[in-house]
């Protein structure tokens, strides 16, 4: 029960990130470069302060994959939404994360039960049913490529978290080393930010990213990579529910059906038959 609660809190934090980013960019409260930069900077400051207060801080970089994968996710995520709508972006992101994390699980020899494959497929089908774009508008290739890069970055970042002995310290180091590179796009192409945009970026960075990612690294060692991948399919559903509650977006029958399919798929993925 403790693990379920912690995973649920983490998914809520991830969904809040999507809502904050969508609100800032869609309402022109911040540009992609400025939002990503302040998000990383505020997350780094929050985490460094906590680790310093805790004592035994270690800022030596031993693995560049952590900061680079975090950077790929944050930058790709922000810039992709300049040309992608929210639904298609979420579909590409979480589809890519699924593939990356299942591939990582297989490469490191993790046994993936049959029902987990079935559950993952059912949950992703529900997400596709909800978010698949309508009409014949072509998919923006640049935006799709950036979101696929973000998906690869987040998948790798999550796989690395399974081996984190000190989740808070590892997350703080990743943010600290990723921030200087994350500031470069904003330095060379500052695209503006309002006070509301700054508030959304700080909340996203310091709270739902910094503390949320530290909690994610805390629970990942207790989760098989394939379970962690399936659990993240709930994030778009939670984000859309948040949009309905807090932004006044419309509640539709497609959302209700998709939510049941995603949650049903997650439940199926946790079932392990005797044959497995």
Automatic annotation (TrEMBL):
Pfam families: EamA
Transmembrane annotation, as ranges: 36-53, 65-82, 88-107, 114-133, 139-160, 172-190, 196-216, 223-247, 253-271
UniProt topology in membrane: Multi-pass membrane protein
Protein name: Threonine/homoserine efflux transporter RhtA
Keyword Transmembrane: yes
GO cellular component terms, A-Z: membrane
PANTHER family reported for this sequence: AMINO-ACID METABOLITE EFFLUX PUMP-RELATED, INNER MEMBRANE TRANSPORTER
Residue span(s) of domain EamA: 142-270
Cellular localization per UniProt: Membrane
Origin superkingdom: Bacteria
UniProt keyword terms in alphabetical order: Membrane, Transmembrane, Transmembrane helix
Signal sequence range: none
């Amino acid at each position: 029960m403790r693990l379920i609660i912690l995973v649920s809190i983490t998914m809520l934090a991830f969904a809040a990130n999507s809502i904050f980013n969508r609100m800032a960019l869609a309402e022109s409260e911040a540009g992609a470069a400025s939002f990503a930069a302040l998000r990383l900077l505020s997350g780094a400051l929050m985490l460094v302060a906590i680790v310093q207060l805790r004592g035994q801080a270690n800022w030596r970089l031993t693995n560049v994959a952590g900061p680079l994968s975090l950077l790929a996710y944050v930058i790709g995520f922000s810039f992709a939404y300049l040309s992608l709508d929210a639904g298609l972006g979420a579909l590409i992101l979480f589809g890519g994360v699924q593939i990356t994390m299942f591939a990582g699980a297989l490469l490191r020899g993790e046994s993936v039960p049959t029902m987990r494959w079935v559950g993952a497929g059912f949950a992703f089908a529900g997400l596709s049913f909800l978010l698949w774009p309508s009409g014949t508008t072509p998919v923006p290739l640049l935006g799709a490529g950036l979101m696929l890069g973000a998906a690869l970055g987040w998948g790798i970042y999550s796989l690395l978290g399974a081996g984190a002995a000190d989740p808070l310290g590892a997350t703080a180091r990743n943010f600290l080393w990723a921030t200087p590179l994350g500031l470069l796009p904003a330095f060379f192409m500052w695209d503006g930010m309002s006070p509301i945009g700054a508030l959304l970026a700080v909340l996203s960075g310091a709270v739902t990213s910094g503390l949320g990612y530290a909690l994610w690294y805390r629970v990942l060692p207790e989760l098989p990579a394939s379970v962690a991948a399936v659990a993240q399919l709930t994030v778009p559903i939670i984000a859309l529910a948040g949009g309905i509650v807090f932004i006044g977006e419309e509640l539709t029958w497609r959302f209700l059906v998709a939510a049941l399919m995603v949650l049903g798929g997650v439940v199926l993925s946790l079932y392990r038959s005797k044959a497995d």
